[in-house]
Amino acid sequence: MAHFDTEYQRLEASYSDSPPGEENLLMHVAEGSKSQWHHIENLDLFFQRVYNLHQKNGFTCMLLGEIFELVQLLFVVGFTVFLANCVDYDILFANKFVNHTNSFKVTLPDAFLPVDVCSAHIRDNTFVIFVLIISGVFWLHRFVKFIYNVCCYWEIRSFYIHALKMSMSELPYATWQEVQARIIEIQKEHQICIHKKELTELDIYHRILRFKNYMVAMVNKSLLPVRFRLPVLGECVFYTRGLKYNFELIFFWGPGSLFENEWSLKPEYKRGGNRLELADRLASRILWIGIANLLLCPVILVWQILYAFFSYTEVIKREPGSLGARCWSLYGRCYLRHFNELDHELMSRLSKGYKAASKYMNCFLSPLLMVVAKNVAFFAGSLLAVLIALTIYDEDVLAVEHVLSSITLLGVCITVCRSFIPDKLMVFCPEQLLRVILAHIHYMPDHWQGNAHRYETRDQFSQLFQYKAVFILEELLSPVVTPIILIFCLRRKSLEIIDFFRNFTVEVVGVGDTCSFAQMDIRQHGHPAWMSAGETEASIYQQAEDGKTELSLMHFAITNPQWQPPQETTHFIHQLKERVHREATAGPDARPLSLSESEPRSLVADMLAGPSTLAPVHFGCNSSLMNNAAAGINSAATGLRSLSPICSSLYLRGSLSAAHRAGGCSGRTMAGSGTDARTVSSGSSAWEGQLTSLVLSEYASTEMSIHALYMHELHKQQSRGEPSRHTWHRQESDESSDSIPDEVRSEPSARSLSFPRSHTFPTATSSPSAASASASATRGATVGQEWARSQSSSQRRHSGPAADQFGAGGRVARTSRMPMGGWAEDGTAASRHHEPLPEETSEDEAPPHIHKMT
Amino acid sequence: MNCRSEVLEVTVEARQVEEAMLALLHTVLLHRSTGKFHYKKEGTYSIGTVGTRDIDCDFIDFTFVRVSSEELDRVIRKAVSEFKEALSNSGSDGMGQISLEFYQKKKSRWPFSDECIPWEVWSIKVNVVNLANEQERQICREKVGEKLGEKVINVVEVINRHEYLPKMPTQSEVDNVFDTSLKDVQPYLYKITYQITDTLGTSVGTTMRRLIKDTLAL
């Protein structure tokens, strides 16, 4: 007890609740820390682990998987060394005779060398020892990591069980959205984050994806040196895991990096005062890391091979398409990723687009190769046929030396050749395929549309969607190339990087420093050509390219229907959704569509079963209609009309999410609804029990596809109305050696004239004017062909009167849409659509100049 | 970081450093201390009383209130005088920062040591000025007093917000939340650290620790 040695005395009368002498009667009840989950120190790491555990389907799966991976690595290294050093191949190939006492049979143990010979072999070979040491270190590293992970994830496991009330067995069947909803729910009770009473979905995403958002933004603003113009190969993209690791090391977590810890940028980088000095420091750091990379090159190479093997099984598991010949490149994943998009969301989107993408790439098989392949296949096939026939006649043929191996080789040869011979049933329709791809990947440079059949487009698309062989080759080259890129390309950009981090970092209460693009604020980073005209206040430097802000916003709002965005953003989302809904609903009432008329039921059913598989049909129909009905903005509308099943899914989803929200409001109890993990416990809805959140998320992807297509369509329209911004090349930003300081915002005109940035695909064209002129010339001709072809094809598909009807309907739709967009007069727009050729060419010849934004 | 941080900045003369720091630290601690807990059965407890005392400063026109606990005062005084020493020895332009960090301990399982997780950090940035003559000193004396008054109001405003505080612990866990070593008062667990001129970058030790942690992390 304290002694009262101050002049402040207790006023007995004022203590009404504790009469004198009875202080001890005033009792408090200790709350204790009933949960250990309040106030978690490192929430970034915590949420990442929660997400990882969910993605790995629970603790046991993860544990088993990791143990097997460790064993696998030991096995592979051991087995390879054994095969290389401890087997006497002469005995196996029967070049050397083994004298057995009782039989002539050669047994496998005969071929093994004795242990002492074997170990001598290994000891003599320094390379093998080198590899063994590195793999030993690698294995130990994985092992320590494994132990550490087990301890950490055990905690996360109990978090799932005790706090989130989800058992590990139901985890694989719960969607991430559900887990997230529960986390938000328990924040109210446990206060995992102490800054705010309630967490939002965006907070959680921000924390998990803090650095990934930065990387996406840097790729979006073409800040990272990943595109190069090489003398022989032309323009190419080089972005490997090794390079990515180095970037992350330099920016985010390495010693002396820009970030102080996971959640905050160092204060000196937030001030503009000594940016030059900081840039110098960064440049020298990059130099040192580059040199270190160069010195460690052989070690990294071996490590990389081990790592590649190690992660290969995981890749297959995650990516169904990875067994095919192509894969989405690392650069593609960065380019196509939305802000705030988790790995599994991106993966599912890309996997859905895989089929269409590989089909598209197969359209471009070279006819020359095809002829050669056909003939090689013919000769190889006849040889093979003879050999097989002989073998069938008498199997002793197999015993002749090299017959079995030549049969195998010929078989492989035929398989390879066949991959160069296109499918007979395949039709050359790149434009349609590209639309289908766009529906899934959501991003595409402007100049691809209408140029899908050109080889340039294909080449650029192959930067996103590369051969797996190329991918592996790049990975193997990476240890050599990475230091060169670091030292010669990245170092020059250090000032730009410093400026980027200063200008595009915001401190969010309860989250820390995040990339401001990831806030998805239309006003801050919207692009006027992507529907946010009038709302955006961003300078050209601040605008996200390719409509990334807008599309990311839509994507996030659609995948997280519970999220309550800020006021202006809500307005934007509502407006856009309303427009899409209106377009979607306008169709069936006006006139029933031939396609859905013929078999509406089955289409609805199919669409429910799997939207992605059927999408080609619909979109194919859509784009042919588009060309017929004088192209233009109405194409989105007609497209949506043709997609009446999707429309119904839109309705379904709308009502569902409404019900979902209502259910959320009417006091959802988390613990109570544990009967069915997937069921959204919406109290009053008619959908209860039938429609699960999984279905909801499936519709989400469809809805997002529609929105993405719609926004691209509108954007195309808008950029047509505004030819000045339609420059199809973006200057590579390393051509402007100095960086863009803050002053750009206040005075953009002087700079921007010499710095034409557009919303298009970043190409490293050195002489933009010449390229665009030649492109326009060829494009004029090809567009004409394409237009004629598509017109004839659509006439074949649809009867004449129907086509006329579409034209009329399209025009009506356009006039009704005018007040919302307001970018072109009706008359001029119509004339433009009927005469696409001169319009296209004039656009390209127009000198690039940028509107003043402020 | 999952912790609130408040920054206070003061500009004082060299001889005022000690008193200014004491005033601010004691003000915060006054609000972050309770009486001793006396646990009864069934997880209930009663709280002892805490006395307060007015302290008049010698070099500043200012009076502040502190908890009347000599032990606590001794601890704070020791930390502050160390800070003052370091500041005067640094020889540079006299910039420094003293921070008062409230944390709670979390028991973790065997392989890891107990974690100390901060939930509130008060950083006081000090800028020491040299004054030429007595008149200026006199003005400074009054001005610093006014400033400190403002800061105290700031502190009270922050404390009045309903924000996260560790939950009241049960008897076995009381050491994880409160500093129970003092016999007459029981502040939340706190730690006082200081730093002379904000050195760029983190120390080598923390970088190494981070490096190891990062390589281990999945």
Automatic annotation (TrEMBL), chain A:
Keyword Manganese attached: no
Gene Ontology terms: biological process: autophagy of mitochondrion; lipid transport; piecemeal microautophagy of the nucleus; protein localization to phagophore assembly site; reticulophagy
Membrane topology (UniProt): Multi-pass membrane protein
This protein's record includes keyword Phosphoprotein: yes
Residue numbers spanned by region Disordered: 715-854
Enzymatic reactions: a 1,2-diacyl-sn-glycero-3-phospho-L-serine(in) = a 1,2-diacyl-sn-glycero-3-phospho-L-serine(out); a 1,2-diacyl-sn-glycero-3-phosphocholine(in) = a 1,2-diacyl-sn-glycero-3-phosphocholine(out); a 1,2-diacyl-sn-glycero-3-phosphoethanolamine(in) = a 1,2-diacyl-sn-glycero-3-phosphoethanolamine(out)
Localization in the cell: Cytoplasmic vesicle, Autophagosome membrane; Endoplasmic reticulum membrane; Golgi apparatus, trans-Golgi network membrane; Late endosome membrane
Annotated GO CC locations: autophagosome membrane; endoplasmic reticulum membrane; Golgi apparatus; late endosome membrane; mitochondrial membrane; phagophore assembly site membrane; recycling endosome membrane
InterPro entries noted in UniProt: Autophagy-rel_prot_9
Transmembrane segment boundaries: 59-84, 127-148, 286-310, 368-390, 402-421
Record field: compositional bias (Low complexity): 762-778
Annotated Polar residues bias: 749-761
Keywords associated with the record: Acetylation, Autophagy, Cytoplasmic vesicle, Endoplasmic reticulum, Endosome, Glycoprotein, Golgi apparatus, Lipid transport, Membrane, Mitochondrion, Phosphoprotein, Transmembrane, Transmembrane helix, Transport, Ubl conjugation
Compositionally biased spans, kind Basic and acidic residues: 722-733
Function: Phospholipid scramblase involved in autophagy. Cycles between the preautophagosomal structure/phagophore assembly site (PAS) and the cytoplasmic vesicle pool and supplies membrane for the growing autophagosome. Lipid scramblase activity plays a key role in preautophagosomal structure/phagophore assembly by distributing the phospholipids that arrive through ATG2 from the cytoplasmic to the luminal leaflet of the bilayer, thereby driving autophagosomal membrane expansion. Phospholipid scramblase involved in autophagy by mediating autophagosomal membrane expansion. Cycles between the preautophagosomal structure/phagophore assembly site (PAS) and the cytoplasmic vesicle pool and supplies membrane for the growing autophagosome. Lipid scramblase activity plays a key role in preautophagosomal structure/phagophore assembly by distributing the phospholipids that arrive through ATG2 (ATG2A or ATG2B) from the cytoplasmic to the luminal leaflet of the bilayer, thereby driving autophagosomal membrane expansion.
Similarity comment: Belongs to the ATG9 family.
Protein name: Autophagy-related protein 9
Source species: Nothobranchius furzeri
Automatic annotation (TrEMBL), chain B:
One GO process term, biological-process aspect: autophagosome assembly
Pfam family, one: ATG101
Keywords of the record: Autophagy
InterPro entries noted in UniProt: ATG101
Subcellular location: Preautophagosomal structure
One annotated Gene Ontology cellular component of this protein: Atg1/ULK1 kinase complex
Keyword Membrane: no
Main location as per UniProt: other
Single Gene Ontology MF annotation: protein kinase binding
Protein family membership: Belongs to the ATG101 family.
Record protein name field: Autophagy-related protein 101
Record organism: Nothobranchius furzeri
